[in-house]
Amino acid sequence: MPTALRQLPLTNQYRRHVTLDSWPGRTVLVVPFLTLCQEECPLTTGNLIAVTRSLRADGATARVQIIELSVDPVRDTPARLAAYAKLTGVNWQLVTTPPAELHALAKFFGFFYTKVPEGNPPGIDWWTGRPLTYDVHHSDNYFVIDASGVERVVQIGSPDFHGHLKPQLESLLDGLGRQNLRNPPQPSWTPTDVLNALTVSVGQPLPAVSG
């Protein structure tokens, strides 16, 4: 991965400026999302919670850095990212970046996102309680960058969540999201798929654990 892209400015939920190079020696998992997604992203976050549980059980948390990268930079301010982290209980990096930098990352990684009209009736913003004015369609890829900055794995597909989704995440789903929870679109990816992808870079088996 080009150094210029690894050093593009990102801002996390703590209002700290970071880059993809901020965690030397770690494998970096990059996952596009937006906090106002109602169809897939809550399931993505649920899968990542399962991944972190397995990494903790495997003693590998210090070797992997998870980053959820917003594809909605206008609305996903650091304050909103912090509110999403508090709502969902996640503690990995939730980051936003200006539109030009986001476009550069999307072009390199090969994921898409596009602003589209909100449905009718519109969904409700979980943070402000106001009707949403637009949505962002995006691909549900994830990307694994090894400790030397080389992109090792690209996974394309929708999150396939199994088990008990946290109520805070389930409450974010709309009708299509609940349908996706029951019957994930194909192709899809599971926490086990992520752990297998991370194994390529981490260099140790990362078996999934139930929980």
Could you characterize what this model shows?
It contains seven helices and eleven strands. Helices cover 32% and strands 22% of the residues. The protein has one domain: Glutaredoxin, CATH 3.40.30. It has a seven-stranded mixed beta sheet with strand order 2-1-5-4-3-8-9, with helices on one face. The protein has a two-stranded antiparallel ribbon with strand order 6-7. It has a two-stranded parallel sheet with strand order 10-11. It has 211 residues and is of the alpha/beta class.
Produce the secondary structure layout.
Blueprint: H1 3-6, E1 10-12, E2 17-18, E3 27-33, H2 41-57, E4 64-70, H3 78-88, E5 93-96, H4 99-109, E6 113-117, E7 134-138, E8 142-145, E9 151-155, E10 158-159, H5 167-170, H6 175-182, E11 188-189, H7 191-202
Helix pairs in contact: 2-7
Please state the overall shape, judged from the principal axes of the Cα atoms. Answer: globular
How would you state the average pLDDT, rounded?
Answer: 96
Helix content: 25-40%
Strand content: 15-25%
Second rung of CATH, namely the architecture = 3-Layer(aba) Sandwich
Instruction: State the distance separating the first and last CA atoms.
Output: 35 Å
- CATH domain fold name: Glutaredoxin
**The top level CATH class name:** Alpha Beta
Number of helices: 7
The CATH superfamily title: Glutaredoxin
| Gyration radius, rounded | 16 Å
Short description:
By secondary structure, the chain is an alpha/beta fold.
